[in-house]
Write a structure and sequence with these properties.
alpha+beta; globular; six-stranded antiparallel sheet; 16 strands; 489 residues
């Protein structure tokens, strides 16, 4: 499942929510033992971790409303060919499959094609997946019904029964992707359009932009300790709000206007000390009078006519639940872990939540995906598309997108520089500043002197972005994922 933010050349904007849903048999205590404690990894590994998939219905709805291709079969055929004829593994993918071999063997009812029975995968090996080819043929010929009904649905439900899952034929048939109103906010001379809940990305992004707007980031520099300290404090406060106030709007009244109110956001920063880190234990979510490893995929596209999409889609963790539908050939997600299995207990990404994101039948779990557009005011008083951006990376998606935007808008970096630049991350809990290589030891020492706990990590996120300058489009594929690329034609 995932989210698509759409901006047509005529100025029309909308968003498509094809996020997974909890099965009808789901309930708030489904991952708790008799003592009401969370059962380790039950919401992460195996059949019970799977949410009702939304990708096929989302793909079909987007096609029906906007595609100029008209022929759905022509759209899907390349995927059929790729599955039936096979594809070569990159070194990275071979290593990933090898490292997950034991989990594939343990968690599946039948051995999937992703397991090499003759040893280890290596770069250049070809995987042919005839079962997936058959699945894609049925989707090609029957659209959404090719997935939610008939042969594909029967195999899906049989896999659920064999492995102890709870998704039924009724779950598959009832799933509906939803068109939603985009979130629109301002930052300096720019307009930012992003995804509303059940994505937390749009609200958190707009909150953080507003919280840092008045500070002289350009004067400080984008990797100055003062800049990193400010961003960590803004992120800390936004993620605290995320934990309490955000969830599926169809089930929970998300106070969006209050969360994005300028006065409220200014009040959130009144406890900010420019020389000292705030303890996350002292930062609670704001109160009002009216009460996702990183195996995500993002792509940003602008066509010749100026229509643009920003799309983030995911299985959640690497290879999702590790379950492959027997006879179907495709991996299943573990999106149920994006719910709050128990208030205050972290999920796989260390994120905590409350009743707003509790499990309920047919409910969508909260997400960190943040597909986003940035527009710049022009001399005529209108606005021009300036950036299309987004990233995979679990909870680090939101902060990667924030830094990508600030790098391009405030610090004046071109899109490649803005995308390649080292990143930092904070998410309230755990109370740590994560930094990539390239952020100097001197900076780390100064952050620690302010009271921050700093943790060095290898990479965070993988921005895929486009920048438009004077009508020219510049693409940047993040080198953090060597198999990502920018293509223009």
């Amino acid at each position: 499942g995932g989210f698509m933010v759409i901006r047509m050349a005529n100025g029309e904007t909308t968003t498509l929510d094809f996020r997974e849903k909890a099965p009808l048999a789901a309930h708030p205590d489904m991952y708790l033992d008799d003592k009401k404690d969370v059962i380790p990894r039950l919401s992460i590994d195996g059949h019970l971790a799977v949410g009702v998939p939304g990708t096929v219905d989302g793909m079909v709805k987007a096609f029906e409303k906007y595609s100029q291709l008209k022929d759905f079969k022509k759209l899907v055929q390349p995927s059929v060919d790729l599955a039936n004829n096979g594809f070569q593994l990159t070194e990275r993918e071979a290593n990933n499959l090898n490292s997950n071999k034991e989990k594939f063997e343990k968690l599946n009812t039948a051995l999937p094609v992703f397991v090499n029975q003759n040893g280890a995968w290596k770069k250049g090996d070809v995987i042919t997946n005839k079962d997936l080819g058959r699945t894609m043929e049925l989707i090609r010929d029957n659209g959404e019904a090719g997935f939610s009904e008939g042969e594909v649905a029967d195999k899906f439900v049989a896999e659920m029964k064999a492995g102890g899952g709870i998704i039924t034929h009724e779950d598959l048939k009832k799933y509906e992707a939803t068109w939603r109103t985009p979130l629109i906010g301002k930052y300096k001379n720019y307009e930012v359009i992003s995804m509303a809940p059940p994505s937390s990305g749009g609200i958190a992004l707009l909150q953080m932009l507003a919280m840092v707007e008045k500070y002289p980031l350009k004067e400080w520099g984008f990797h100055d300790p003062k800049t990193i300290h400010l961003m960590a404090e803004a992120k800390r406060r936004a993620f605290a709000d995320r934990a309490t106030h955000l969830g599926d709007m169809d089930f929970f009244k998300v106070p969006m206007e209050e969360l994005l109110d300028k006065k409220y956001l200014a009040s959130r920063m009144t406890s900010f000390n420019s020389n000292q880190a705030t303890n996350s234990d002292d930062i609670l979510a704001g109160e009002f009078n009216d009460k996702e490893s990183d195996q995500t995929t993002h792509y940003s596209i602008i066509d010749a006519e100026g229509n643009a999409v920003s799309v983030t889609t995911t299985l959640n963790a690497g290879y999702g639940s590790k379950v492959v539908v027997n006879g179907g050939g495709y991996l299943l997600n573990n999106e149920m872990d994006d719910f709050s299995s128990k208030p205050g207990v972290p999920n796989a990404y260390g994120l905590v939540g409350t009743e707003a994101n509790a499990i309920a039948p047919n409910k969508r779990p909260l997400s960190s995906m943040t597909p986003t557009f940035v527009f710049k005011k022009n001399a005529q008083g209108g606005k021009d598309l300036f950036m299309v951006t987004g990233s995979p990376g679990g909870s680090r998606i939101i902060t990667a997108v924030l830094q990508n935007i600030l790098n391009a808008t405030v610090h004046g970096l071109n899109i490649a520089e803005a995308t390649h630049a080292p990143r930092m991350h904070h998410q309230w809990v755990p109370d740590q500043v994560f930094v990539e290589p390239g952020i100097s030891d001197d900076t780390v020492e100064e952050l620690e002197s302010m009271g921050h706990t700093v943790r060095k990590v290898r990479t965070m996120g993988s921005i895929q972005a486009i920048q438009v300058i004077d009508g020219y489009k510049y693409g940047a594929a993040d080198p953090r994922r060597p198999d990502a690329e920018a293509i223009g034609h």
